[in-house]
Design brief:
Layout (H helix, E strand, L loop, with lengths): L6 H8 L5 H11 L1 H15 L5 E4 L6 H12 L1 H11 L1 E6 L3 E6 L6 H6 L2 H6 L9
Antiparallel strand pairs: 1-3, 2-3
Helix pairs in contact: 2-3, 2-5, 3-4
Length: 130
């Protein structure tokens, strides 16, 4: 299971009454490592003149790696994080997460980061099974 959903939140969801803030809070509580990584890169992206900030440190365990994969592979989770933090997230390998300022999306730096060439360049034997 990706998220720890309370019975109350599930009831509201079944009634069609879950807003972004409730969902984001559920993500924050359920995926604390992923939340910390995304929060960090989003905060640093706002504090720099660069187009983005990234996190390239492998997670300390498979549990934390799983949190990143769940957060960034789910359209709903990733989208809610992007809206909450006001950034565009990009993901390479199993742990490299970047937060791009929205004004940089579509630009040269963003296009280079999300390119197949960048993905291949960020591979190594150590990361093959991550």
């Amino acid at each position: 299971m990706s998220l720890d959903v309370s019975a109350a939140l599930l009831e509201r969801a079944e009634a069609g009454q879950v807003d972004d803030a409730e969902f984001v809070d559920c993500v924050r509580q359920s995926l604390p490592y992923a939340w910390a990584v995304v929060s960090d890169v989003a905060d640093r992206s706002r504090g720099t003149i660069a187009d983005f900030a990234d996190h390239a440190v492998p997670p300390p365990s498979e549990a934390e790696r799983g949190q990143l994969l769940r957060a960034l592979a789910s359209d709903a989770i990733r989208g809610s994080l992007e809206r909450h933090f006001g950034v565009k997230l990009a993901f390479q390998n199993c742990h490299r997460v970047a937060a791009f300022r929205l004004s940089a999306v579509g630009g040269e730096t963003y296009q280079r980061f999300i390119s197949p060439l960048a993905q291949v360049r960020n591979q190594s034997p150590e990361l093959r099974d991550c």
